[in-house]
Amino acid sequence: MTDFTPDAVPVLPLAALREALGRADLDGASALLDAHDRAVRLALSPDALPDTRQQQAWLNLASEQQAALAELGQLRDNVAQQLQQLQRYQRGANAYHQALE
Fold first, then answer.
1. DSSP secondary structure string, 10-73?
2. pLDDT: is 55 or 61 the higher one?
């Protein structure tokens, strides 16, 4: 999961997330994102104000998160295209099967 100490900027577990998605472990990927979300929320809670000296680290994290979001969006789009292609193949197979009857 995500290692976090209150005085540090949480690290996005991108490699572990990619690995989980590569294994089609959606529950594991979701757990990683949930743990990261909790760490970020804890670090940014009103009781734990971020250290202003870590501003660049927070900006880097935001940039990493945006890049990960774009990557996930691309993966989603690729899966949607593959699903549409499978549906076309299924319709073709069904039409061929009906023509044989």
1. PPP-HHHHHHHHHTT-HHHHHHHHHHHHHHHHHHTSTTSPPPGGGHHHHHHHHHHHHHHHHHHH
2. 61
